[in-house]
Amino acid sequence: MKKHLKNHLDLSKVDAPPSPVSTEADLHNTFVSILDGHEEFILSIEGKIIGSNLEAVNLTGYEEWEVIGKSFTLFYLPEEKTDKLYLEHLRKAEVYGKAVYEGWKLKKRGIKFYSRLRFLSIRNALGELTGYRMNISDITHKVVYNGKLLKIKEKYLGIYNNAFVGIMTLSSEDFSIIHSNSKARQILGEKTDNLKNSFELAHEFEIFKKQLLENEAIHGFEFKTRLLTGEEKWISFDCHLHSAENTIEGVIIDITQLKKHELEILKLTKEVNTFIYHASHELRSPMSTILGILNLISMEKKDDPVVTNYASMIRERVKSQDQLLKDLTGVIYNNTAPIHYEDFNFTVELPDILREFKDAYPEVETETKVLMASIIKTDMVRMRTILRNVLSNSFKYNCHVGAKIEISVSEENSKTNILIKDNGIGMTDDQLMMIFNLFHRSHEGYPGNGLGLYLVKSILTNLKGEIKIKSKKNLGTEVLLILE
User: Fold this and answer.
1) What whole-number distance in Å separates Cα of residue 384 and Cα of residue 351?
2) Phi and psi for 88 in degrees, rounded to 5?
3) Do residues 107 and 76 make contact, with C-beta atoms less than 8 angstroms apart?
4) How far apart are CA 424 and CA 397, in angstroms?
5) CATH class of 339-484
6) Helix (H) or strand (E) holding 368
7) Against a cut of 0.90, is the pTM above it?
8) 20 to 30 A Cα–Cα from 75, which one of 3, 38, 84, 248?
9) Fold held by 2-144
């Protein structure tokens, strides 16, 4: 058999007449190749080109007359001819009926292209080999594309596996982890089969699942996990749901150290707040005693103007310090006490608060309009603190002839608007920029500690409200309080 193959694969024997190939199947295959844009050649047993479809396509650049009678090795690289690789191609096609190869080949004028060669053996009715069908396809663009795609994939995998954050792909059906990089596996430890198993508390996972399904994305969801070693970790998870693919893509970050620092800060803050709260109460007690003694002095020495004057000066300073302690207590209360919603009636509360200022500021005229249902649901203590502090400023900086304060309560876009206007001394734009800063005082020469508007803004933030202030120097101030 080997001797027979050697004889009929000897390409130096170019004088033998070609064998006929003209079956119906051959014609059909040639027609299909023409439609597909491939170049097809009919080869003799010796490998000579005895037919082609070059009239229909021109992939290699040759005309039909240039290739007829020549060896099919016309398209092979010089080194392939030296190694006689072409003999192996035809041998396999003869033995197995077909053979497919991919590699660089040559077009006319030595131009290289990446090709796919298909060899089919052709046999007569007796099963005798009569020749070969060789099909050439140009797959250069596909190979280049695949090469670029491979480089991109390698680059992506490099980033994926060397990221400083954990990267994961999950199944949206059961939250099993489909893919994860080494950082994710390091963070989760042994719990890398299903995200649900990483949640120490089951109800936290249900909250996470509900939010993800509703919003299709979650940013900065924090949960606690406990490894099999007993180590406790805090994790922050950002992810996006791809409904069409039934997958979830996300990143996880180990925030254990950050959480520890946060808890330490909260602990210290709580201790400081507790100290200030108790210290304020303890300091207010002697203040009350001092005020009582000053009242006794004023009664006993009412005919002595010097003593009465000094007692009055001391009384004002004690009241100022007492107000500072009240405000500090208010700040601590707002930061620590839970919000308790109950009925707040403007027609009852506003007159009561205004009466607190009438004795000290009898010359200031007030006007109140409630243009909506007078009762709303809010935190009673916090709401009173807001109104007292804002109205205190309106009275304090508006004690002149013709002074007036207008208060209106209305509803807009399902929100309660409280507008407090005065015609007092007002503020400059520079002063407006600083009014919410802690301990900032815009006007010297007036009583105050710089806590009032800071406290108002803090309370409104807790109540999901806001404050807007407009003011002009010597023309007055408008304060708009907006409540949900």
Assistant:
1) 12
2) -65, -40
3) no
4) 6
5) alpha beta
6) strand 365-370
7) no
8) 3
9) Beta-Lactamase (3.30.450)
